[in-house]
Amino acid sequence: MNEKRERIKELVAVLNRASRAYYQADEEIMSNREYDRLYDELVSLEEETGIVLSSSPTVNVGYEVVSSLPKKQHPSPMLSLDKTKDPAALAAWLGDQEGLLSWKLDGLTIVLTYTEGRLSDAVTRGDGITGEVITGNARVFDNVPLTIPSKEETVVRGEAVISYPQFEQINESIEDAEARYKNPRNLCSGTVRQLDSSVTAARHVRFYAFSLAAGGGDQTRRRDQMEWLRAQGFDTVENIPVTRDTVEEAVASFAEKIGDFDIPSDGLVLTFDDIAYGRSLGTTAKFPRDSIAFKWQDELAETTLRQILWNPSRTGLINPIAVFDPVELEGTTVSRASVHNLSIVEELQLLPGDRIQVYKANMIIPQIEKNLSAKAGRAAPEPPGACPACGEETAVRDENGIRTLRCPNPDCPAKKIKSFTHFVGRTAMNIEGLSEATLEKLIGIGALHQLADIFRLDRFREEIVGMEGFGEKSFDNLIKACRKASQTTPDRLLNSLGIPGIGSANARMICLAGENRWEKISGMTEEELLSIDGIGDVLARDFTAFFADEGNRGMLEELLPLLTLDESYEERTDQPLQGKTFVITGSLERFENREAAQEKIRQLGGKAAGSVSKKTDYLVNNDIGSGSSKNKKAKELGIPIITEEQLLEMMNE
């Protein structure tokens, strides 16, 4: 009994630590599957022993929010849902009742209150008892109605989400790879709780209602409530009426859609359609009895572990990556999985040659389920004693029971991955084949220490050819891409240097003002910069400070002799697209790619944006009648949708 009681204490501590990281810091220190496994073990032990600690996650819902946002108590507790991964269990749970099956969206639960038909309050779920007031942010969600027809007090619960395309677009705009968001849920959580609602507005959060807590007249069924919500202007989660005879078929129909579903989902929710019946069942200490969650049964595959790569990062953390023989999972081939930290590597006893089981968490993120070769008494694998990037002695840190491996060297090249990644990007030097993963490998073999080294990679032919995923042909293609990129323009070079505030548009304007001569551009004074439309005090100071810095000057002295700059300059007076903002979507026929079309728009005085807004003048789409989200948005805002040919006519091409 003592051993089981100690195990309960251990599980409570580990699960609470994981929950705090996930809900308060938007960090993931263990996979969802691992959390579920430990949680189920805890439930089993509590039932067996009768011991339930006051701090157990089985009786406590969430954690107190920790932010400067105002807090507000919910009128009634917002409980989490019991769960199953067995479709047959849903049929048994439903019994003779009818139910409503819907997506379980993976975002942030929000409660909206309407008074006299106007949005008066928006509160996050928080710890289930008290949430954070985010009314100002909810008002700028893309699809939340600010007013509704009903004048009675109305309380709507739903999920705030950010779609996968929007998530990818936002991550692409973040040059620092370490600062990018791990998943849409983390991004949404941080976005909804912003103190500046303009940040929220720019990220296009959407709200999908899943239940009506107050108001709505006298509906007796959930499906009628959902219809009423839609009549009030709300988007609702997709739902299907089911019985115990049809629920498994309905689950299968949702499963077929998940691969193409733009909104993050971690499963389904089944609710009794009869509202009164559901309420009559009451609740447990943690779960309501009128609903149950269904989580996807992850597809498992068995494979052989080949190695653990230890990838140094900008923060000094050295991340373990499992590399294994390729396997098919959820319709795609995977050969790598993050192992999160040293503790998990040691717990799984991961050694090359081991047989392992892998899966995709929520059908998306590759994870290791189990090491089939692990056995009691086996020695734990040893982490590298030296940083793969700089050779500095590594250090193991234990933070609340989670062991991590770090490089303490402040000058480690891996900590410069931000500058390397930005330098080779599409809008900068545009070097094909130099992905972030490849850059990390090149840093790991000691081939990259400064930007100029990118154009001297031919000195490391033997080492690069021997890298995983490389060979003679890959090496030759990489060298060709670097040579091609060395023939560049001043604005691309300026953009590639990572000066704060200098993106492609500002770089183009500054180079135009400097008549495209690098010597003149790099020597511009604050006064000269401030005379350029759109350049402010802060940007001007950052620009001049960059070129005044001795380290940056040394870096450029190494880099410039390896480049050929096209400094040709012709002042243009013909600007047919001056002042117009364009968004391009879909496939193109006359332009090589979207970037080429955007570049041409900028050359002719226009602006190229990534998403449709009130500031957009034209949406370019060769499929004008498509039902894409950008087309829908343009039509809602009354923005003209033109074809590529019409764009060329406007360009006088």
List the helices and strands and how they pair.
Layout (H helix, E strand, L loop, with lengths): L1 H23 L7 H18 L21 E3 L9 E2 L2 H8 L4 E7 L2 E8 L2 E7 L5 E3 L2 H4 L15 E8 L2 H9 L11 H9 L4 H6 L3 E9 L7 H10 L7 E4 L4 H11 L7 E8 L2 H6 L10 E4 L6 E12 L5 E12 L2 E7 L3 H7 L6 E7 L3 E7 L23 E5 L2 E5 L10 H7 L12 H9 L16 H5 L6 H14 L1 E2 L1 H7 L7 H10 L4 H5 L3 H5 L6 H12 L1 H10 L4 E2 L15 E4 L9 H10 L3 E3 L8 E3 L8 H9 L3 E2 L1 H7 L3
Parallel strand pairs: 2-11, 19-20, 21-22, 21-23, 23-24
Antiparallel strand pairs: 1-6, 3-9, 3-10, 4-5, 4-7, 7-8, 10-11, 12-13, 12-15, 13-14, 15-16, 17-18
How would you characterize the overall build of this protein?
The protein is of the alpha+beta class and 653 residues long. The protein folds into 6 domains: 2-49, Helix Hairpins; 71-294, D-amino Acid Aminotransferase, Chain A, domain 1 (2-Layer Sandwich); 301-381, OB fold (Dihydrolipoamide Acetyltransferase, E2P), CATH 2.40.50.140; 413-485, 5' to 3' exonuclease, C-terminal subdomain (DNA polymerase, domain 1), CATH 1.10.150; 488-565, Orthogonal Bundle (DNA polymerase, domain 1); 581-650, BRCT domain (Rossmann fold, 3-Layer(aba) Sandwich). Helix content is 34%, strand content 21%. It has 24 helices and 24 strands. The strands form 7 sheets. A 5-stranded mixed sheet has the order 2-11-10-3-9. Helix 1 (2-24) runs antiparallel to helix 2 (32-49) and helix 16 (490-496) crosses helix 17 (504-513). The longest helix has 23 residues, at 2-24. The radius of gyration is 28 Å and the shape is globular. Mean pLDDT is 81; it is low at 60-67.
